[in-house]
Amino acid sequence: MAFVAFDDFQTRYENTIPAADEERVGALLDDACALAADITGTTYAVGDAVPGVITATVCTAVLRAYDNPSGLAGETIGDYSWRGASVAGAGAYFGSGLYFTPAEERIMRRAAGKLSVGTLELQGMLPAVDDAQFVTVAGSNEPVPWFAYEDLL
């Protein structure tokens, strides 16, 4: 279910969407909201307080997919040339359809408070300290746990 309403999209889109396209736009909104939820790691429901920048970014992606479903990147009339789907930097390929650019993904993560920094819980491979022998390192009065190689296997 889309957390960005059809009216939010219609407000940002300068043309009136024909009644025949309303179902397609609704499906694009559903897809874009699902992608945004996956990118941000946050789920929103209709009526939730969604950051405005996420709503705007979802509408931008839907507009891009609605206005240019074939992914046309350019066309020249004199000595006719044509290019298909556009290629973005950093090895990312954006064809036709619905997508968010890396910059849009960063914007949405930042707005949702899901930055790329986190913590990771690691599990040690050493036996419990209770099984260790303690040795004193030269120049220190603190005993340090010492494990025989066989204890580690």
In short:
With 153 residues, the chain is mainly α. The protein has helices at residues 6-12, 22-40, 52-67, 102-112, 149-152, and strands at residues 74-76, 81-83, 133-136, 143-146.
Can you give a write-up of this model?
The chain is mainly alpha-helical and 153 residues long. It has a domain at 6-112. Helices cover 37% and strands 9% of the residues. It is built from five helices and four strands; from the N terminus they run αααββαββα. The strands form two sheets. A two-stranded antiparallel sheet has the order 1-2. The protein has a two-stranded antiparallel ribbon with strand order 3-4. α2 (22-40) crosses α3 (52-67). The longest helix has 19 residues, at 22-40. It is elongated. The two termini are 52 Å apart. Mean pLDDT is 78; it is low at 89-93.
Q: What profile does the largest beta sheet have?
A: 2 strands, antiparallel
Strand content: 5-15%
Rg is 27 Å
Structural category is: mainly alpha
Cα-to-Cα separation, first versus last residue:
52 Å
Q: Biggest sheet: strands side by side, in what order?
A: 1-2
Question: Stretches where pLDDT falls below 50 for ≥5 residues?
Answer: 89-93
Percent helix, as a range, is 25-40%
Average pLDDT over all residues: 78
